[in-house]
Amino acid sequence: MAKRLLSSLANFRGNLPSEFHFIPDFFSLSEQRTLLSAALLRLDATGSRRYQKKRKSYIASEGSSSIFLPDGYYEFMEGHYDGVIHNYREMHLTSWPTAEISGLSPVLDRLHSLLPFQTKLDSTQTHLLHLASNGEILPHIDNVSASGHWILGVSLGADRTLRLESCIKPEETVDVLLPSGSVYIQSDSVRYQYKHSILKNRSLGGATGQRISVMIRVSSSVG
Ligand SMILES: O=C(O)CCC(=O)C(=O)O
Ligand SMILES: [Fe+2]
């Protein structure tokens, strides 16, 4: 495990493209918990009533000491055979629950202070993506007509590895371990000329588990 971590850090140091920005420890534990609760509150309000009831009765009988419930309590989609995301649920977020979750506003202010190129919040879109323990994202470039030249991702929950692969020089591959509380930004050449993927959890004694990412993208019309 330690060896794997070291080699991924070495990789990351050696080859990280300059337009990939990474802050491994941006959010404190309590900020992570606040953001995760807010994301789950919004995601849990989507989907079928059957699952909403299932979660309610689980919490009533077991309590909710950990943030994520077991995988079976979420309506994860397998994804189509040709889709890039497998075992996940997601939503487009139109507003954060700042009234319901105390302490959320300052956490969002810190998050939004990271938006590159002094982008205004109203020219961005936010998505929440919840990966099941066995969820994965296959290599892809985000739809170039749907969003602009940078993509920001916050990782919450279980550690995952992000793989970047250059489309121009396929031998240029970088693995970046994304701990909970980390933030990355792919901009310009990385956003357009590298495929990215989130590898499936490998249960080599490492923690497996669910992960939520908060993805912020700039609109395609904004320079
Ligand atoms: O979860 C992530 O960090 C990446 C998500 C992603 O690649 C996407 O939604 O297009
Ligand atoms: Fe993506």
Automatic annotation (TrEMBL):
InterPro entries: AlkB-like, AlkB-like_sf, ALKBH7-like, Oxoglu/Fe-dep_dioxygenase_dom. It holds the Pfam family 2OG-FeII_Oxy_2. PROSITE patterns: FE2OG_OXY (PS51471). Transmembrane segments: none annotated. GO terms for biological process: DNA damage response; fatty acid metabolic process. GO terms for cellular component: mitochondrial matrix. Residues 120-220 form the Fe2OG dioxygenase domain. GO terms for molecular function: 2-oxoglutarate-dependent dioxygenase activity. PANTHER family: ALPHA-KETOGLUTARATE-DEPENDENT DIOXYGENASE ALKB HOMOLOG 7, MITOCHONDRIAL, SPERMATOGENESIS ASSOCIATED 11-RELATED. This is Fe2OG dioxygenase domain-containing protein.
